[in-house]
Amino acid sequence: MPPALAALQKQQEALRRQQEEQARLDAEEQRRQEEEARLEAEAEAKREQARAVKKQKEKEKKEQLKKEGKLLTKAQKEAKERSELRMEQMLAAGGKVAGLEEGAEKKRPVYDRKRKPKKGTEEQKQDEQSESASQLSFTFSPFSTTASESFESSDSDPAASRS
User: Fold this and answer.
1) Is residue 42 assigned to a domain?
2) Which carries the bigger pLDDT value, residue 78 or residue 116?
3) How far apart are CA 4 and CA 7, in angstroms?
């Protein structure tokens, strides 16, 4: 084989090896980039899942506070803060608040009529009750010998039966 041909084959062989090495490096670089992209996507998915879990927990917490009636709007929070500030100022000035004292006894409500019944009406009621009781004592008895007397005695006082 001529030396020129051998040199040409060596060059071609070196060129082929160089191209194969370049192709291998390119493929390796591409695999590395794909792996990085995959890892980045997994990390992003984990972050997204963590955000979703956090958001869900926050939503559940708000829902629980709503159920308990403790969820306050911004305006309600400000009003509460103003109220607490006024309370502190009043306590600092020497004011007393009945609900905050430990030894404070609650006053029990007195359930009583505001209007007292008139004495005359009570006497009238008692008279009516006694009259109705006396009327009941004159009942018809089938064993009585004089049935007409028992009827006459109950009908004898028509004024009492009207009242």
Assistant:
1) yes
2) 78
3) 5
